[in-house]
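Let's practice the habit of predicting before peeking. Look at the sequence and jot down your guess about where helices and strands might fall. Then scroll down.
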Amino acid sequence: MRLTDGHQPTQRVSVVVIAHDDAVHVPDAVRSALAQGEHVAEVIAVDDASGDDTGEVLDRIARKDPRVRVVHHTVNSGGCGTPRNTGLRLATAPWVMFLDSDDVLPPGAIDRLLGAATLHSADVVAGACLRREIPDGREVRWQPQLYEAEALHEDTSACPELLRDTVSVNKLYAREFLDRHGIRFPDGRFPYEDFVFTARLYAAAARLVVVPDPVYVWQVRRQARRLSISLARDTIGNWRSRVAAQRFAVHTLEHGGHGLLADAARVRFLEHDLRMYLRELPLRSPDYREDWWRDTRSLLEGDARMEQAVNSASAPARWAALTVLAAPGPLPDDGLRRLAALAGKPGRLLPPYAVGPSGAPVWSETLPTELAGLDTLAACDLPVTVDAKVTPGARTRVDLTLHDLYGGLGAAGPESVELELVDRATDRVGLTVRATWTATTGADGDTQIPAHAPTPTAPGDASCPTNAPGSWTARIDGLELAGLTASGPVAAWDVRARLHFRDGSVNETTVRAVRAGLRRVAVPHPRRILVLLQPYATHDGSLAFRVAPGVRGALRIAGARAGRVLRDRLPARPDPTQPATPTTPVRPAGDPT
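Done guessing? Here is the structure:
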């Protein structure tokens, strides 16, 4: 339905809220929809056969507000698609939006979406999705590059970049458009159903508008008793569900005559999904690694179009995929950590750096996969590695080593490094320091910056020389980290680095924590008595600091450590993606992770 008058009474929305065993959070979701105002004609709440009080809670809300309609499924569907389809079938307003029971709509979201729909006569309007970490409240935008400014896309099938947003809940849909093209979610137990729904949407050549305003808040609860599908990635069934949904989406696009879109979807999967699971692979069990490696090689070897997608992917994703293809089984632990670092965002290519028989950069001497395209990357785009050795104390010292990449950094001329400590909860910069790089020197006193010198160091080896050939060093001394103010009893501070080069380019990255020196220290403080300072390596090896002021903060760190030890000793969690498990996820599968 195309609207031209912003004051027409037809400008009304049905909000479909789906819920399963979520009596605690669903009232907030429904209230956030009702609070959107007069444009909300109805809230259709679908209780997918909950075993708790979800149905009763929704019935109580409906008795107080006539706009709320409750539908009770008698049998759990096993997924998010069926309850959404139920709500869509019952919707009466010309526009429809989807909302999950543990998320909320921010104030003014529907007004903003409807305004853009009216102005541009759109079939679909998409807005920014905020990923909010609970309980600390940190918010990160999903696919921010797609939502920098308001823009009209006349035909989604001609805009491959839009495929990077696989989320269905941050969009307002003209119901007539969905009905006319038969666009529905896969029914039953189908994890990552958003992949298929959005593929059907883009294949239908929707007239789509994007707005930069936040219109959906995805609330991430990592400590929840039952993790969402997008967070429960530690089972091989989760990966297989994701791959199955990806293949279904690609088939949908190809069958609709959109081969270029299908190719773009393959590249997106490599650059986002493959890299995400590779980052976490060192954390998984040996059995998981074997299954994942075999399944992924089968996916990458599947057809010529996937081979083309691998070659078209950006450098970190391309090199990672080629390395998986080259190795018949999972790499050893050091190799997996190195591959995970390459798959990071930003990616880091860890030393040692090897060259093949032709002199070209390769992954390793034992696995000579060529790092094709490395020589064409500018210094600002290189997957550089900066090592950091920390000496914690009242005045903390950080010794940095920047490793050259086959001469690429030497040509640009490293000049200085700027470190920022960023509060993980608020994204606030608490401290900024700068130091000058010094090129390493050889025994004869000459500066050593060879064009193609492998760096003879092993990843994470505390005994590595800090001034290896083809590297630069810098020292930052006197950091008074105990004075950093925290948003809670314990604050986590991530370390970000900006590398400045003589040619004017800037490379933004994180720094790798050298294991030596990662120890907890108690630092006296005039106001807080003492502050517990703990440098540590994150799951991808990046340096971060925990700062815990006073006794309360110290107890929080000790309690968190005890909890991690206890979880490690518990039996493995069952695979929630297998058919034997009847519970349904309450999260959308678009996975803005």
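How did you do? The first strand starts at residue 13 and ends at 19.
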